[in-house]
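L-ascorbate oxidase homolog, Solanum pennellii. Tokens?
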Amino acid sequence: MREKSLNVHCSFIFAIILVLVTTLQCIYADNPYRYYTWKITYGDIYPLGVKQQGILINGQFPGPQIDCVTNDNLIISVYNYLSEPFLISWNGIQQRRNSWQDGVYGTTCPILPGKNFTYTLQAKDQIGSYFYFPSLAMHKAAGGYGAIRVYSRPRIPVPFAPPAHDFTVLAGDLYKRSHRQLKYILDSGHDLPLPDGLIINGRGWNGYTFTVDQGKTYRFRISNVGIATSINFRIQGHTMKLVEVEGSHTLQTTYTSLDIHLGQSYSVLVTANQPPKDYYVVVSSRFTTRVLTTTAVLHYSNSWTKVSGPPPRGPTTQINWSLYQARSIRWNLTASGPRPNPQGSYHYGLIKPSRTIMLANSAPYINGKQRYAVNSVSYTDPDTPLKLADHFNIGGVFNLGSISDQPYNGNAYIGTPVMAANFRSYVEIIFQNWEKTVQSWHIDGYSFFVVGMDGGQWTPANRAHYNLRDTIARCTVQVYPKSWTAIYMALDNVGMWNIRSENWSRRYLGQQFYLRVYSPANSWRDELPIPKNAILCGKARGHRTRPL
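Tokens:
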């Protein structure tokens, strides 16, 4: 009798295991796999004319480009040959049901020197232009970033003809100081000075060339991968037709230049319809006391005339110019997104938010040192990633509700703020900026609708002027000085998600927190299980992941 009971029990366990394995196979079935092996090393780079220590991936700066198609599975094995812990995060990739793979310290233990970790990602229901970057300390200032391009599936219509070629433009600021020196300045309680220069695809002045054939149209995917400054992008003598912003197909408005704030990505079409010669591709800083400028070259294949003279000037400190441009960017309601149905079939403006969250950034001094805060809480990393502490029910790491829904007028303090939220709720978030600098905010795991932005203090009366019809959905948004930006967001992705400043010194010194989107169902339908290969650190050491 006891033997029969044991057999039944074993059969039951085997059946459960079989169901779990089948479920995991179904999750990724019928979607291609792409495999990558990346070796992270130090290496010498010279983009500003002096030797610097950069962070290379497979010997490259910037790192290798990821080209994939909607729903592709990406298996990326990362080997850390640095002398310090390392992590990679995926700016704009939503990690559907899978914040385990987000690659920030709140979700993932660092890859220790000499060790490796394999990320398992899926570009689930996404298209568009994104990038990856190193997320720990000030590593991003040394490189370690690269482009991610997610193409539409073959049968999904795209609202423009295939371009002759698809160019990547990774532009941003750079310091001559090493990432360790920048970290030391911040740890000493000081802010960083203005960057030393700007670069395009890892190169300095006229160091990179885009070759085009006269009469053909090209796609340029531009990302601001810097850590400190907004940029303006333009091509001498050419106009740009905007077609995509962080996974949203846009109305195809023509611009002579584009403001691109920290962490943002845009796609434009450029037709080589000018006399055959070489033209400047210009990137300049925005809203800085001294304008930084760098150039690349747009080379017509039948040209024998080099660029000469000064590059064309762009906007410098004009806020209203940038604000009006931002408002002019609209969703293409009839175009398909990652699925065949039109983008406009999702009527975001007809859904009433169940909760309003106002987030105010500030720059307090705490214990005599410069810090940055959200609603008066300045974030500091605990010894254990929040996601692991939540999964294993480890106490003493964080408290839910440790950041308020509204600005707090008391003295700022250091903590580990985590905001609680319910799965499938629909929220309104107001980013209120009382400072004199442009802010750039990113939310991991999500794409949100930018329904409004304007100067001054936000009030409920501003809702009357929201764009509830055709604003774009994106993952990174700017907030102008002494201004506000409002977004709508459907909390349809369970997990622990980083909300942060894309200004890296502000993020490092506390302008970030985590949003815990919770489902009581505890089902793989809502969230994938902890990866079997998850690294366990801090108070999570000694726990087990899962058998399969």
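Helices lie at 2-28, 179-187, 319-328, 386-391, 504-508.
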